[in-house]
Amino acid sequence: MPIIDLLERNAKLYPNDVALVELNPDVREKKRRTWKEFSLVEEPPTGAYRREITWSVFDEKANRVANLLLSRGIRKGDKVGILLMNCLEWLPIYFGVLKAGALAVPMNFRYTAQEIKYCAELAEINALFFGPAFIGRVEEIADEMLKKTLLFFVGNEFCPPFAEHYDEEVAFYSSAKPLVDITDDDLAAIYFSSGTTGFPKAILHAHRALTHAATVEQKHHGQTRDDVFLCIPPLYHTGAKMHWFGSLVSASKAVLLRGTTPASILEAISNERCTIVWLLVPWAQDVLEKLDNGTLKLENYHVEQFRLMHIGAQPVPQSLIKHWQEYFPGQLYDTNYGLSESIGPGAVHLGVENIRKVGAIGVPGYGWQTKIVKEDGVTEVERGEVGELALKGNGVMLCYYRNEQATKEVMRGDWLLTGDMAKQDEEGFIYLVDRKKDVIVSGGENLYPVEIENFMRKFPKIKDVAVIGLADKRLGEMATAIVEIFEGMECTEEEINHFCLEMPRYKRPRKIIFAHVPRNATGKIEKPALRKTYGADKLIDEQNKS
User: Fold this and answer.
1) Which residue segment(s) compose the domain that 34 sits in?
2) How far apart are CA 236 and CA 239, in angstroms?
3) Pairing of strands 462-472, 476-485
């Protein structure tokens, strides 16, 4: 069934149950500002600390959005962009777009004005919903966009003159279900790749894929109506939204938290009685650090109902989970692997029963098939050998929209080549080795940065590490480790080099740089930024001087 049917079912069966809660710890009481003043700030405060809506209100709001769009000429197959920080309006707008038969096109909140324009043109969007944080960026490109795009401002503040005010407009439209026939085979959404090799690619999905993602999430984590899911990552990304889809299937409450401090996370878990939380590794580390140093004390929070913590988007150190279970003994844990081309997490997952295998990304997810292939993209490698991970299932994208060549590069019939190098152990558990494009060729040897990073994270002083290949006159590339140390600790390059003696000589980093390891909003290391910061020419100059 199309994903919108689940929302309508929940509204009918559980109309007065709370569906969504928004928590905004950073909200501040400030004087009302004009749209011009707003364009100068990074993210103006909106709303109150806590807002909520029921399933019936959720569905009614989505219907109003759909009827608004239909009244403005948006038709089945048109595209509607969503450029919002996490907020209570986000998901009703998303579902309203789907109910109108249009394609939802979520956009990264970190996009510059030119990236917004590029993605809008690539996806051929006909309308855009944007929030207060983006007024300045949208203003830069508004004249060009208005030639073919409706602009709706979502926020409590004064609406900029180049847009229509969402709240004022949507209130006039019917809350009745629009008369648009939607099937599993209809187009549903365009998501954008992370753009680590240039501007993002547009990933096209059908309704079937969204429903598949919802089913997978609920099967993996067993959500019931008694569960409460804490959603922290940005909803524009498939990861956060597809995990929330488990709450949609089970008709259970979800909490959207605008903030990632350890205190705000624990307060949300405690006050809202959250039972399931999806964290990124840095957030989990931050929570543990505050508990270790006594800044936060678990006895001050209600956490007894907190039954499952799961992580995705990056490799997970075994030491982190062991440490986590010291504070949360008996709690279930899962790792999830996926990519936007496979509608987000769940294509591979560890499984709550397999915590002994932490370090692996796991086994094929519910309704998914996997194989590890050679360079030809078809022939499978022998068990234990490194190859490229391929996926098959109802969640695989239809194509890269308007990019036939890029589609051909990653599709082999129904199989999707992920670009991730992996291997499988004797029990069938899959381990990521690295991104295909991140492999370092040093002195003729292939080095896999993730493998080196996983080893180095075992060193107790290292909070985070990223290994990149930088130009070297003799070796071609040399492995360079950017190392972030836990706050309050001191560490020397000699200590790390001594620890790395346990690795084969050719795998050891040849240079250590102590610095912050940047990650994007979904937890992935921003290696292109690191390569730019620590450029090859700069490094070679330093070597020549030494």
Assistant:
1) 3-221
2) 9
3) antiparallel
Is residue 374, in this structure, part of any structural domain at all?
A: no
**3 state SS of 201:** coil
Cα–Cα distance between 389 and 378 in angstroms, integer? 11
Mean residue pLDDT across the chain: 89
Q: How many domains does the chain have?
A: 2
Q: Would 367 be classed as within a structural domain?
A: no
pTM of the model as a whole: 0.83
In the predicted model, residues of the chain with pLDDT beneath 50 are: 28-35, 37-47, 196-197, 536-546
pLDDT digits over 387-412, tens only? Answer: 999 999 999 999 999 999 999 999 99
d(CA 273, CA 228): 7
Task: Specify if 184 maps to a domain.
Answer: yes
| Number of CB atoms found within 10 A of residue 77's CB | 11
Q: Closest by alpha carbon to 65, among 86, 90, 84?
A: 90
Sign of the Cα pseudo-torsion (197, 243, 390, 449, in order): positive
| pLDDT at residue 41, as a whole number | 42
- Selection from 358, 359, 338 nearest residue 347 by Cα: 338
Do the domain assignments include residue 484? yes
Distance CA 366, CA 353 (A): 15
Strands 276-279 and 228-231 turn out to be parallel
Q: Would you state the torsion angle of the CA atoms of residues 103, 105, 106, 111, taken in this order, to the nearest 10 degrees? A: -170
Contact 117, 134 (CB under 8 A): no
> The CATH number of the domain where 470 resides is what?
3.30.300.30
pLDDT score of 546 = 40
pLDDT score for 313: 59
Last residue of a domain, one of 170, 188, 221: 221
- State the pLDDT at residue 444: 64
Domain-ending residue, one of 202, 221, 240: 221
| pLDDT for residue 316 | 76
